[in-house]
Design brief:
Oligomer: homodimer
Order of helices and strands of chain A: HHEEEEEEEEHHHEHHEEH
Distance between the termini of chain A: 28 Å
Helix content of chain A: 25-40%
Radius of gyration of chain A: 19 Å
Structural class of chain A: alpha+beta
Chain lengths: 253, 253
DNA sequence: CGTCCTATTGAAATTCTTCAACACTCGTGG
DNA sequence: CCACGAGTGTTGAAGAATTTCAATAGGACG
């Protein structure tokens, strides 16, 4: 449990150098922590707080100043925007071990909420800024996440602008599959998925209404592309077939 | 000396220090060049080539490796994605002095084309990479542009997913207005705009068909929100009114 | 057992698209 | 100078996809 024989990023580092708080963190070798030295990890950990959020719990309101940033340890976070008359659009989903926050802009332009139960490891703004000054690598890592987010946003723009309801829902399920279980999702084998979003949220993500989302679910079910185990869990008998069905280009990084 | 924020960062620099190629460049103090020292500007300029592209001329194909990056000196560039069966969605527009390219990913996920006549100042990949190694400021600047692009993409996701055709077209015109003439676009005064896109492209940007775009133009015209001077130029009598409009849909015929 | 929340289903209404026709502009060449 | 054609934009009417409205079903929990 304490030794990691698998391709560690810093094989010269003893576990004793790593802060206690971080030792049990599954995300430690990924996300932004993956590139920090033990000292940096220590410096960071002195200011971190771990939270657990319930589904639908708000993290940051739109326009609010973010005084703390976080790493997602587990769970799924949704970023959404609202029109003045209350129409909602989810503009991004973030999974562990994503970094949460916009370090160099002073106010959030999205509402940030937990979609599922979420565990966060959060720290104050100034701590991150100091770390960034000390190591350019960190900013590079932030850049890469941002770049992936933009790529995903562009994929969803294509879906929102040009794809049918059925393609969008199929694409969404495939997207979730590859995010929840990246390895498994390659193979043409059945896969059980816990959906991080309820129907309303899926609708808000795909620019549809709950009713149409529901209808597409039953279409996919009748076509044998998915099996509805219960509201929140589905089985995908053949992931590739589902992907082919709704070809979203998901570029990995 | 390393303030990353604002305005003529180096007003103490004599013109004689600045490479000849750069002296006449309107974008020199903005974009990524704005944060480079004269030496760096010189190093960069040794490898730059200025191009002029005609409208619809391709810069990078989707999936192609980008071996050169560019700064946009003038004109508008469109980034688009295609589905396998040929449906097109424009996922971003870039204006001078934007930086063009994805420095840390090896293949473009978008097709990049000139929308208008475009003047570029381009340089090989490795030159940029060396510059980035030398100055973290540069990566910070790239980060900021990326962050802005993501913010815009999210705004358009809201439009594509949740706004009516009329709101989208109105919003697009307002967007172009603020991009073409940032200062003027604040005031409630008439503004003449040269549209960088033809109707087909506007449709591909807004997830609509040419016909619906056209219909929304005439609605806006009949409502007195715009005046059609010719196909490519419109007058906006009151920019604020148009902005207010693109958030709230008023429908009459 | 009733209530709340979530999801599904059906029928009517609406928005946008599709298809088809026409108008305008701008070169080129007769 | 006019005719011609290509490219681009507009308009109308029919059709399709999605939304809206309304009703029903199921599960979790006190």
């Amino acid at each position: 449990m304490t030794t990691i024989t698998e391709t560690p990023i810093r094989q010269d580092v003893h576990n004793s150098d790593v802060p206690v708080l971080c030792r049990s963190c599954e995300a430690r070798h990924r996300g932004i922590c993956g590139i920090l030295s033990p000292d940096q990890l220590l410096a960071l950990s002195r200011h971190t707080i771990k939270h657990t959020l319930n589904p639908e719990q708000s993290i940051v309101a739109e326009g609010e100043a973010e005084q703390r940033f976080s790493n997602i340890m587990s769970g799924v976070v949704k970023l959404s925007k609202l029109t003045s008359d209350g129409r909602r659009q989810i503009v991004g989903l973030q999974f562990a071990p994503d970094f949460l926050g916009r370090p160099f802009s002073d106010h959030s332009n999205c509402e940030v909420e937990a979609a599922t139960e979420v565990r966060l490891c959060s720290f104050p703004r100034h701590v991150l800024q100091n770390l960034v000054k000390a190591s350019p690598n960190l900013e590079h890592r932030l850049y890469q996440q941002l770049s992936r987010e933009l790529g995903e946003a562009q994929d969803w723009m294509l879906a929102l602008g040009r794809k049918s309801a059925l393609e969008r829902v199929g694409g969404f399920l495939h997207f979730v599959a590859t995010r929840i279980d990246p390895e498994h999702a390659q193979a043409s084998a059945p896969l059980l998925i816990d959906l991080p979003l309820r129907r309303t949220d899926i609708a808000d993500f795909l620019g549809l209404t709950v009713e149409t989302v529901s209808r597409q679910f039953t279409k996919l079910r009748k076509a044998g592309l998915i099996v509805l185990v219960n509201n929140r869990t589905i089985e995908i008998p053949d992931v590739d077939r589902l992907e082919h069905f709704s070809n979203l280009s998901l570029d990995e990084d």
